[in-house]
Design goal:
Strand content: 15-25%
Number of strands: 13
Structural class: alpha+beta
Radius of gyration: 27 Å
Largest sheet: 5 strands, antiparallel
Distance between the termini: 42 Å
Order of helices and strands: HEHHHEHHEEEEEEHEEEEEH
Strand order of the largest sheet: 4-7-12-9-10
Low-confidence stretches: none
Number of helices: 8
Length: 334
């Protein structure tokens, strides 16, 4: 623990740094523009820890997110050097303090209450605390302080790599791929082409490999599947075959995907010459319990014009399953 002159200097520097931090929390980054919105904004459900390296990311967004982590490392480094405290006491007081600051941001309309910010701020403070604990000698001397700073930098990169890897696993990792036609229907009926007939769309030959929504289905069809939170995303292809265009059909088709009562994806296709398109889609399901697919054709022809094929669902992996379960429990509370 620092004593004497070093303690006084460190307290002054910590006070200045705290004031700067509060400035950026409440006034910096054009916070005044938040006042134009009179509503209180908050997010109580964790959406993930936004900590990763900037590869393939918007640099500005990455810099802001990483700043939320790095900015609080000094508090974890310095406070235990000034005041004797164990990790549990320190981190508990830190979480309480940052939660109060987030609430004040929301109430003052100078920001929002975001549980993800509290998590990443806390990780930063924990890294700082660990950095000063790993340095045992000369902690009150210049070379010891340099060691603490270098240790914090090394830990920061290590934590960023670990959390970034976890994020990648949760965002992109998936389990088994299941064809949509293998799922049991809970409502409605649907016909699948048993022979996977090929056709042309926009002049391109299409050869379905997994399944194909039969063109014998009614022009307006709605089907519902029970997913039980098992799937991460749905993907597939959709188009209006060229032979439909050639019959001078001018109508349009709409395909709508609804997960747990919320529309998650919709697509409009036109049978007018020159306006047709072959479209692939990949839409997150985020562990939804129920999926409804609506296909609506405004043509008087009794059968469908649009065709879907190779429609698959990717199962959630173990980590995604745990996260989705936690989110559902939190939503039931809030």
């Amino acid at each position: 623990m620092y004593r004497g002159k070093l303690q006084k200097i460190t307290i002054i520097l910590l006070a200045i740094y705290t004031v700067l931090t509060l400035y950026f929390l409440y006034l910096g980054f054009n916070r005044a523009s938040f006042l134009q919105d009179s509503s209180m904004r908050y997010s109580l459900i964790p959406e993930g820890i936004p900590l990763h390296f900037p590869m393939g990311r918007d640099f500005q967004i990455w810099f802001f997110e990483w700043g939320n982590f790095v900015a609080f490392i000094p508090f974890g480094m310095v406070i235990p050097l000034l005041f004797r405290c164990h990790f549990i006491r320190f981190i508990t007081l830190f979480i309480l303090s940052i939660t109060i600051l987030e609430i004040l941001q929301m109430l003052s309309r100078l920001g929002s209450f975001d549980i993800d910010d509290i998590i990443i701020n806390t990780i930063g403070a924990a890294v700082g605390f660990l950095a000063q604990r790993l340095v045992h000698r000369d902690r009150d001397k210049f070379k010891g302080i340099c060691r603490i700073i270098l240790t914090a930098i090394a830990l920061s990169f290590g934590v960023t790599a670990i959390v970034g890897g976890i994020n990648n696993y949760l965002e992109k990792g998936g389990g088994e791929v299941v064809p949509l036609n293998e799922l049991a229907l809970t409502d409605g009926s649907v016909l699948w082409d048993e022979t996977l007939l090929s056709f042309t769309a926009v002049g391109e030959k299409v050869e379905p490999q997994i399944n194909m929504y039969s063109r014998k289905n009614a022009r307006t069809n709605e089907t519902t599947y029970q997913l039980n939170g098992k799937y991460k995303e749905i993907a597939g292809y959709v188009a209006i075959p060229d032979d439909v265009i050639n019959t001078a059909s001018k109508g349009e088709s709409d395909i709508i995907f609804i997960a747990d009562g919320t529309e998650i994806y919709s697509l409009g296709l036109s049978a007018k010459s020159g306006e047709n398109q072959l479209t692939s889609f990949q839409t997150p399901l985020n562990g939804a319990n129920e999926l409804t697919i609506k296909l609506i054709n405004d043509d008087p022809n009794p059968i469908t014009k649009a065709v879907m094929w190779d429609i698959t669902l990717t199962e959630v992996n173990t980590g995604q399953k745990m996260i989705n379960s936690i989110k559902r429990k939190l939503r039931s509370l809030f």
